[in-house]
Every structure is written in structure tokens, then in C-alpha cells.
């Protein structure tokens, strides 16, 4: 499905360019961002929830639209906004940690990562956002053997 | 933004150490030096290693070695980590003006230093240590939200003289005033706090609020009248000390000086600023940023001391391939700057103030 829609949009952009209605480069840029965003999403959707046996995709914690990729100075900025399952979910930081670890290890292109809780979905979202985006605190959390084990289990690729 | 005039072109040679490059990220499952050992602050007299996270991989791989070569080796050592003993070696040299063999490290030779003392007390990782200019006091700060002040006597005996619990969150960095016994700390709680000894006890004498997120690091200017702070909110703030009875009419409470933010540098950094260093020789201000770049600012020649303006005089894009965590100016050689990064490398740079600025 995707190759077909990719081909369609490429053809469309070519037609538009020939008609003098758009720049070929400009049409390609959003395409690259979408591809990268899908690459990111492919990695995070299989992450398991720390509490339940379902993946984050199944629980609608993450979705395709929650991933945004921007290109800044030849580097990619990946922004993820996830929705924890319940408003007072104490595992929101853990989900943030899993997202970070998975992308750090598996995303092939050089990137900077920002993870946020989607607005209005959590009571202490500012605190959690600050924690998830502080690399020192994230590293300290990953040194905790209990947390490390939980995260490892959540990001483990299904066989 | 100003162009990156004034920075030496990217150095030509790179001397790699040890077994070569290994991928290092902030989440790599490894223990940074001093990280888990709460309270370990002093390796030996005048040696201090902060429990930094990624970026100090060079420390881990190197063993200490007694220097044989003069100047180049000692200059490099002096500027890394600010208070490092001449025997603790640093890793990769990217600067072509420093001969690599002098800095090369033989990983197989055993360490030549021994641990003199272990200071215990902190309940969580110690993030920063700093010697006071007198050499008699040592300050440490930790993720346990406290700042400790230690006194050392002639027999190398350390004694804790104060535990300061003023911050409400992790303390990221401590730094001493260049000439007075005034201590400053930066914290995850978005504030900077200043401490002084009053009647035999250390107290928090000022709290600087203004940053909108974690304050990562601090630096005093050569005169000690101003303090620069850098933050996760992507700004640098310059604070000035006003003594009671000052001419500008800034209010002070009692006999404590008050500090006011006199300048904010915003719009220059696109990500968190992890470190800031103020050159004691030239007055240049260098910043280490999470966008992999190093920037240098200088005060404009005719700027008003009460409302100074700073210009960006050098912008080194991609100084490293990952976040730059730390920058330090050499105390003896003007313009020599060291930086370290999450990419596991330490780099040396030569900075020259651009003409006409």
C-alpha cells in the first residue's frame, strides 16, 4: 500500500512541477519527514506497556500522528507525544523511559529526541515531561536495576 | 547570528585511544566514574572527579601517567575538569597544536595514583565538586538535593562543616567565587543559590530566580562581580552582585548583597545548554550545548556595566557529533578551550577574538 501511495504522490508532485505549480524539492521534504516519522513509529508501536500485556499501539498510547520529525541543520528532531492510559498513571515516566531507550538503540539515523505527554492527559504532565527529557535523570533511572529490567522487558522485540 | 569567525578550522588529526570508538549514549548500560558511589569526592589532594554521565568516557579509559613532557601536557591537563591533578590523563586530542604522543595513553600501564580519602555522606550520585580558591574548602553537590562543604587541614584530614539543604531538587553544579568564600549552586529546581559562612555556619544568602527550567551550570567572571548561568530553557543569564548601599539603588535585605539579572542571552541556542565557562584571562564566555555546538560570546566594548550586551563571536557547528557536555578554558593560555561530549571524545580548540569585535 505504501509504495503505491508513495508513487502516486511522487507522480503528483512531478506533474505539479511540470505545470510550474510547485518546486520539486519542496514536495520531497515533507515526504522525507513522513518516512522518518513512520520509521520511528514502527519502532515504538511494538513496545509493551509496563503493566498490561498489550503493546502501546494496541492501547492507543502512541499513534502515527503522535510522531513528528523535523529536519534542523541536517539533523533530525524527533518529537513524540504519547497519551498515558489513565490520567494519574504512575507509569507514565516508565513509558517515556521505554520510548527513549528503544529509539536510542534502534533508530538508525542521527537524531535528537523530545518526548512529551500529550496535553491535558495527565495531572503532573509538566513534572513528567521535565524528567523524561533530562538525560542525566534518565541515565540514573536506567542504572536502577529494577527499572532497567522492566524497561528491557518492554522494549524486547517480539520473537 | 554572527558567523563562526575566529575559531580555528577543524583540526586535522585525531589521536584515538585504547581499543577505538565504541558507541556511547547517555543510556548505555555502564557505570560512569564516581556515579554510583555516593560521597566519593576526592581521589587525592587537589584531584577531583565529578560523577558526570556520558562525556567522561575518556576518563574511564585512561590510566594515569606521570608526565614527561613539559608545557603541552600540563596545559591540556589543567583545563580538563578544572581542578584535575596533573596526573589524571585525558583522552583524544583533536587539536593539531598539541603533539599527540605526549597525550597518548598507555592503557596497559597500571594507575600511578592512589586514593587518599573517600568522603561519604551523600545519599545519591555526586554531580559536581569544586575547590575554593583558598584550597582549604571543598564543595560537593548531589542528586540528593544537598550541597556539602568540607574543610581540609594540613594533614589532609577532611571534615564536613556544613550540609545545605536549600534546594528542592537535584543539584547539578557548584562553583566557588574566584576570590571570596562564596559558593554558588545550580539545580533542577530552576534556581541558583548562593551560600556564605555567617557566624561559623554556612547559610544560603541569596536565591536567583528567573530561569524557566533546570539550571545546569554556572561560571563567575574574572572579577567575581558577575555570575553566568546556563539552563535547559536555552538561555544564558548574567547576574550582578549589588552590595548594600549601592549607587544604583538596588534594594538589599540587611547586610546581604543582592543579585539581579542584568542580561539574558536568548535565541542563540537551539537546545539545552549543559555548561558555561568564563575565561579568566580574556573574559570570553563559552557554552556547551545539546545541539552539538560550542559558542563563544564576548561583552561589547562600550556596554553599560549595569545592562551589558554580549555578542556571539564564534559558533562552532558540529563541534562534536553528539551533545557537548562540558567546556573549560585553559587558565594559562588565552583562547585554549577544551570540550567533551556524549560522543566519547574530548576536543581542544583555539579561539581568537575576531577583529573589530
From TrEMBL, chain A:
Keywords noted in UniProt: Chromosome partition, Signal
Signal peptide from the UniProt entry: 1-27
GO biological process terms held by the UniProt record: chromosome segregation; protein maturation
Pfam families tied to this protein: FeS_assembly_P
Domain MIP18 family-like residue range list: 39-102
Summary of subunit composition and partner proteins: Monomer and homodimer. Component of the CIA complex. Interacts with CIAO1. Interacts with IREB2. Interacts with APAF1.
Family listed: Belongs to the MIP18 family.
Designated name of the protein: Cytosolic iron-sulfur assembly component 2A
From TrEMBL, chain B:
UniProt-annotated stretches for the region Disordered: 1-65
PROSITE patterns for this protein: WD_REPEATS_1, WD_REPEATS_2, WD_REPEATS_REGION
Gene3D superfamilies: YVTN repeat-like/Quinoprotein amine dehydrogenase
Keyword Nucleotide-binding in record: no
Signal peptide feature range: none
Highest taxon in the source lineage: Eukaryota
Database matches in Pfam families: WD40
Comp. bias (Low complexity): 48-57
Similarity comment text for this entry: Belongs to the WD repeat CIA1 family.
Protein task: Key component of the cytosolic iron-sulfur protein assembly (CIA) complex, a multiprotein complex that mediates the incorporation of iron-sulfur cluster into extramitochondrial Fe/S proteins. Seems to specifically modulate the transactivation activity of WT1. As part of the mitotic spindle-associated MMXD complex it may play a role in chromosome segregation. Key component of the cytosolic iron-sulfur protein assembly (CIA) complex, a multiprotein complex that mediates the incorporation of iron-sulfur cluster into extramitochondrial Fe/S proteins. As a CIA complex component, interacts specifically with CIAO2A or CIAO2B and MMS19 to assist different branches of iron-sulfur protein assembly, depending of its interactors. The complex CIAO1:CIAO2B:MMS19 binds to and facilitates the assembly of most cytosolic-nuclear Fe/S proteins. CIAO1:CIAO2A specifically matures ACO1 and stabilizes IREB2.
Name recorded for this polypeptide: Probable cytosolic iron-sulfur protein assembly protein CIAO1
Gene designation per UniProt: CIAO1
Amino acid at each position: 500500500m505504501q509504495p503505491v501511495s508513495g508513487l502516486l504522490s511522487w507522480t503528483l508532485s512531478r506533474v505539479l512541477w511540470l505545470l510550474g505549480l510547485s518546486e520539486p524539492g519542496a514536495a520531497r521534504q515533507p515526504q522525507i519527514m513522513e518516512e522518518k516519522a513512520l520509521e520511528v513509529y514502527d519502532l515504538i508501536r511494538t513496545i509493551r506497556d509496563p503493566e498490561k500485556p498489550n503493546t502501546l499501539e494496541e492501547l492507543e498510547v502512541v499513534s502515527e500522528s503522535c510522531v513528528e520529525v523535523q529536519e534542523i541543520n541536517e539533523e533530525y528532531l524527533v518529537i513524540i507525544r504519547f497519551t498515558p492510559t489513565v490520567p494519574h498513571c504512575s507509569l507514565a515516566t516508565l513509558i517515556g523511559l521505554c520510548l527513549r531507550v528503544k529509539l536510542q538503540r534502534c533508530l538508525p539515523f542521527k537524531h535528537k529526541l523530545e518526548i512529551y505527554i500529550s496535553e491535558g492527559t495527565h495531572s503532573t504532565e509538566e513534572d513528567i515531561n521535565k524528567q523524561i527529557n533530562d538525560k542525566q535523570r534518565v541515565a540514573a533511572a536506567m542504572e536502577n536495576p529494577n527499572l532497567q529490567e522492566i524497561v528491557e522487558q518492554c522494549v524486547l522485540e517480539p520473537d | 547570528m554572527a558567523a563562526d569567525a575566529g575559531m580555528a578550522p577543524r583540526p586535522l588529526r585525531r589521536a584515538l585511544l585504547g581499543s577505538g570508538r565504541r558507541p556511547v549514549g547517555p543510556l548505555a548500560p555502564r557505570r560512569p566514574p564516581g556515579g554510583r558511589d555516593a560521597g566519593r569526592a576526592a581521589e587525592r589532594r587537589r584531584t577531583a572527579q565529578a560523577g558526570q554521565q556520558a562525556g567522561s568516557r575518556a576518563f574511564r579509559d585512561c590510566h594515569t601517567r606521570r608526565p614527561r613532557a613539559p608545557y603541552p601536557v600540563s596545559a591540556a591537563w589543567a583545563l580538563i575538569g578544572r581542578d584535575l591533578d596533573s596526573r589524571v590523563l585525558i583522552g583524544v586530542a583533536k587539536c593539531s597544536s598539541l603533539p599527540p604522543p605526549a597525550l597518548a595513553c598507555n592503557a596497559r600501564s597500571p594507575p600511578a595514583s592512589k586514593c587518599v580519602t573517600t568522603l561519604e555522606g551523600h545519599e545519591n550520585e555526586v554531580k559536581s565538586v569544586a575547590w575554593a580558591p583558598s584550597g582549604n574548602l571543598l564543595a560537593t553537590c548531589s542528586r540528593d538535593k544537598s550541597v556539602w562543604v568540607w574543610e581540609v587541614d594540613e594533614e589532609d584530614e577532611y571534615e564536613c562543616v556544613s550540609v545545605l539543604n536549600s534546594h528542592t531538587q537535584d543539584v547539578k553544579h557548584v562553583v566557588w567565587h574566584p576570590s571570596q568564600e562564596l559558593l554558588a549552586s545550580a539545580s533542577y529546581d530552576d534556581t541558583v543559590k548562593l551560600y556564605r559562612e555567617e557566624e561559623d555556619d554556612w547559610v544560603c544568602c541569596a536565591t536567583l530566580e528567573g530561569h524557566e527550567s533546570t539550571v545546569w551550570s554556572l561560571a563567575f567572571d574574572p572579577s567575581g562581580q558577575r555570575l553566568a548561568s546556563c539552563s535547559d530553557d536555552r538561555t544564558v543569564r548574567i547576574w550582578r552582585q549589588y552590595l548594600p548601599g549601592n549607587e544604583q539603588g538596588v534594594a538589599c535585605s540587611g547586610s546581604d548583597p543582592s543579585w539581579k539579572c542584568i542580561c539574558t542571552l536568548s535565541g542563540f541556542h537551539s537546545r539545552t545548554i549543559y555548561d558555561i565557562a568564563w575565561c579568566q584571562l580574556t573574559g570570553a564566555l563559552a557554552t556547551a550545548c545539546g545541539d552539538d555546538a560550542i559558542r563563544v560570546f564576548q561583552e561589547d566594548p562600550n556596554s553599560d556595566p549595569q545592562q551589558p550586551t554580549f555578542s556571539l563571536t564564534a559558533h562552532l557547528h558540529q563541534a562534536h557529533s553528539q551533545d557537548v557536555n562540558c567546556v573549560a578554558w585553559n587558565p594559562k593560555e588565552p583562547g585554549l578551550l577544551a570540550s567533551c561530549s556524549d560522543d566519547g571524545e574530548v576536543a581542544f580548540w583555539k579561539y581568537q577574538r575576531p577583529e573589530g569585535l
